[in-house]
Each structure stands twice: as C-alpha cells, then as structure tokens.
Amino acid sequence: MKTLHGIHGVYLAIAAIAFFRYWARTRFWLPRYVHVLAIGACALAYLLLSMAPDDAPIRQSAWGLVQQVGFLLLFPAIVYFFFVFYGGQHAAYEREHGRRVFCPYCGAPAHPTAAGPCPACGQEPGPR
Questions:
Q1: Per-residue confidence (pLDDT) for residue 111, from 0 to 100
Q2: Rounded CA separation 120/31 (Å)
Q3: Contact 80, 38 (CB under 8 A)
Q4: pLDDT digits (tens, 9 = 90+) for 3-30
Q5: What is the DSSP code (8-state) at residue 29?
Q6: Which residue of 37, 52, 101, 113 has the smallest Cβ count within 10 Å?
Q7: Residues with Cβ < 8 Å from 53, sequence gap 6 or more?
Q8: Is 11 in contact with 75 (CB distance < 8 Å)?
Q9: Which residues of 60-94 are buried (b: 16+ CB within 10 A; e: fewer)?
Q10: pLDDT number for residue 122
C-alpha cells in the first residue's frame, strides 16, 4: 500500500509540474469566474479576520499586520492553486481558445480555421 501511495504522489507531482508549466505557457491566463471566486475567497478571509477577538494571537503579535495580510491573501491563492492543479485552467483555455492545429508536413502551429497553405512550409492541406 505504501508503494501505491508513493506512485500516486509521484504521479501528482508530475501532473502538477505539467499543469503549472502549461499555466506559464498560456501567460497565466485564467477565466473571469476564477477571479470572481478568488474575490469571494478574499472576502471570506476578511470576514474571518473581522470575527477574531482583540486578544487573538494574530492581533497581539508584533507582526500581526503582516500575518493578517498573509492570511487575507492565502484564500485567493488557494483558489488559484487548486484551479490550476486540478486542470481547470487547461480545460477552460481549450474551451475558450480552441485546440491548436499543427501542419501535418512541418509540425508548425496553424489556425484551426485556416483553409490556405501552411504559413511555415507552404504545403496545401490534403483531403480529409
């Protein structure tokens, strides 16, 4: 069982690296609704901080303001992290921008609706 957990952990690490590389490749694009969710998470964190009593450790510390800001930013960071980690960004990007089509001759990326020759090699698309 420990071996299976180890294999699962390695798989998750590889998937996380792949999704975060994809996120960087798409120039950190995210759909608008994720930003709305992050704003909601930030509001929730603010409400939680406002409910803390005056004698709470987060308010008594010398670094209390830094801790409160960190706590406030932690909730949206969790939203963004899990959206990217579980592949939501990849699915949303593919739905929004469409799948990339590649030239069968040279492998250069082409627009999915292009009907003319490949801009890289000049080959005409064959019959479908």
A1: 60
A2: 31
A3: yes
A4: 999 999 999 899 888 888 888 888 778 8
A5: -
A6: 113
A7: 59
A8: no
A9: eeeeeeeebeeebeebbeebbeebbeeebbeebbe
A10: 76
Mean pLDDT split into 10-residue runs, the chain, 128 residues: 92 87 82 94 96 90 91 95 84 74 72 65 66
CB 22 within 8 A of CB 90: yes
The reported pLDDT for the residue numbered 70 is: 94
Q: Helix/strand/coil (H, E, C) string of 71-111?
A: HHHHHHHHHHHHHHHCCHHHHHHHHHHCCCEECCCCCCEEC
Helix (H) or strand (E) holding 9: helix 2-25
The DSSP call for residue 55 is T
Radius of gyration of the chain (CA): 23
In this predicted structure, what is the pLDDT of residue 114? 55
- What are the structure tokens assigned to 105, written together? 């001759």
